[in-house]
Design goal:
Blueprint (H helix, E strand, L loop, with lengths): L11 E7 L6 E6 L4 E5 H6 L4 H8 L29 E7 L3 E6 L6 E4 H10 L1
Antiparallel strand pairs: 1-2, 2-3, 4-5, 5-6
Bound molecules: zinc ion (ZN).
Zinc ion (ZN) binds next to helix 2.
């Protein structure tokens, strides 16, 4: 048994968009006083939506990444565009997660506090 507190008990007290370099990212100040920095590239690569999770499961398979909603004409082929890592918008989802939108129109990823914290810890 571990005495470590579950990371899900932490929540952000401040989220700041960083626009350094060409991609930027998010700086998050947590309720336990820790400050983490996540690059937008890390966030995109770890997108938790069903489409991306499935895509990562088929990493040897260059299936197009199809948006789940919205701009239906947009089809992201295996040729990676530079701007898929460019954050367009950050919106809170209730009080438990962030919804991130990307310049290529992808916006189905819901990043829970626990996920954001674990990404920062593991990167
Ligand atoms: Zn996704």
């Amino acid at each position: 048994m571990s005495n470590a507190k579950p990371q899900s008990l932490c929540f952000p007290v401040e989220v700041e968009r960083i626009k350094s370099s060409k991609e930027g990212g998010l700086r998050i100040s947590w309720s336990d006083g820790v400050e983490t920095l996540l690059s937008s590239k890390t966030l995109r690569i770890q997108c938790p939506c069903a489409t991306c999770v499935e895509e990562r499961g088929e990493s040897n398979h260059n299936t197009p990444l199809t948006p789940v909603s919205g701009r239906a004409r947009l089809s992201i082929a295996s040729e990676v565009k530079g701007n898929i890592y460019s954050l367009e918008a950050v919106r809170p989802v209730g009080n438990y997660a962030l919804n991130l939108s990307w310049e290529d129109g992808h916006k189905t990823g819901i990043y829970s506090w626990a996920l954001l914290r674990s990404l920062a810890t593991n990167s």
